[in-house]
User: Fold this.
Amino acid sequence: MRAFLLSLLLTAGLGAQTSPPKEIKFQEIGGGTFAGFTEDAKAEKAWELSAERMKPTSEAGAWDMEKIEMRSFRDGKLQTTFTSPFGVATPERKAAQGAAPIVVRSAAFNLSGLGWSWRSTKQGDAFAILSGVAAELDLAKPVLQRTRIRAERLDAASVERGTQLTFVGQVVVDRRDERLTCERVVCLIEEGPKGEAICRSILAQGKVVRVAGRQTLTGTAADYDLPGEVLLLTGGVTLTEPGFRAVAGSLRHEGKTDVTTLESADEAHAVKLNLSRPDEPETELTGRTVVLRREAKSDRTLVELTGRATYVAGKDRLEASRLVATEAKGVTVDLQASGGVKGRADDADFEAAEARWERSAGVLRLLGRPHLREANGFEMTGAAIFSDRRRGRLEVRSAPGLRAAVRLPADEPGAVPGQAEADQVVLSSRAGVVEADLEGNVRYVAGLVTAQSDRLVAFSTATKAGYVLNKVFLTGKVTYVQPGLACAAERIDYVPAVAIEEVLQKDRLTGRPRLLNLSGGAESTRPRLFVQFADGKKADFVADAQEILAGPDGAKFFLRGNVGMKADGVEATCDLLEGLVSPDKKGRLVARLMVGRGNVNALAGDAAARGRVLEVKPEEGVARLTGDARLRSRSGIEGVPAKEVIYDFRTKGWRMESAPDQAMPDQVVRPKIFLGEDFTLPAVKSLDNGR
Assistant:
């Protein structure tokens, strides 16, 4: 070849000396081959260029070639083969180019296109395909798992560990069941763990759109680590699926675990997830970081949000430092939150350290000093709160140092709501009635009233003005205290706002009183009542059953069945007893009148008396017995019937009127409000029959 070139040049030179200049015609010759070698000590073949036909061009060292085949080598092994119908080669420059179609083949890729250039460098091949680029990568893999790329242009260069392919201009990447489009793609081809050539990474830039199944991703740049199956998408990222859309600063997807992580671009822009599902309110979740975990076996997706995480669905809301939502079949079935939890669920506002909300089951669990406020006015706190909306049940539990507490409605509009605490509180709601069941060391406070018991069951009814307390049942070592009046029993039935104003007004009581019905207990635990005199002394009553009408400005009480009384040195028994207490000038409730009837026996000092009626007026300092009244000494000597037998609290002595009077005298307290021996409150199934 060199001899041919040399003779051609010499012939041209001689012609110029002996005759007029002539046009130089380059003679076509047959096929030929050029080769290049490494510049190191090994001097191994680096490239080889051959053609079936070729001829020199007007450019020195350049050749027009047909049916070109170029081969590159590395470490003595064939790496890449280039074939093209025609082109121009400059062997001394280690370069070639052409406008014809080209096919490039290697163990890692197949490339084709129209128009090309090639040159050999110290690192290896550097070539370009100028238009209509089609590429197939990962040839070691099955056909369906290979990566295919289409682009307007390709630039390729050898790098330290392989080959870098750069695709530009309306790039389309098809890989398995996904398609990616963008403006530029950079692929790195390297040697795999088994010595095979693999596509190590794909970097996509400019208006990136990735479609995989029913999922679409968009951003400005995407970086694929193919062996690791990791995708990093940045720049105004959106993730869209049917009924689901996410907006973030960046996205990282790990294919091996099917975990997707979305990060916010900055503190001012949180990651937003919007869910639109049939028969479900529009839902939005936000957080600084969002992690999506798909569970293939259960067909569930876990959505973990951190950094000011929020969940909003219609009127429902949940916010916390960390929030995990479980999605199944297009529905948010479960929410777990921790760290400064605040929220609203089913018209109830709550706060807690931790929360679990099983939305599909209607169950809400709050832990860590939770506080819950119901729309109906009920408010509660404790160590833990459990709400089951489908069953209409709400449970509050206590822990050492932290009691379960609930605020109950007032017994009438404008009154002070009641505050109750216990070891456990259970609220049940049905048909406009809320039942509050408190067990274990119960304490109830409403205004000036304090009650304690082993158990408390309260019923509240919905009205236009809200819920109103209308029945309370206390059992097990019950005490009830308000200034000037206290009682104790095994059971107290409390009915607020009894509508009997007219009768009470005649007896110097006004307002809507509360009815207390005391019952139960053995001899030592029979119902007891304590009232206070103006001088500070107290009267103590015991009876089988007691009814107390307690109003804002006084109280009336009715005792029946083996009634006993102790007051300022006087002990008395009778069948029935009525009494009245009302405020003094200082607003303290003091006893005004007590009347016992039927088989009255009284003992004081060194004498005793009996009669049919005992009337005690503390303000006057006397107790009067009438109705066949008789006085007897401790030795048993009994006097004749008298009109009155009187005990004077001041002198601690007895006296009697001599004129007998067998007729019943007019009484100051009339049995107008006495409820009768057959009086019973409505039965409460949960109270009477147990749970």
Remarks:
- Helices lie at 2-18, 501-506, 685-688.
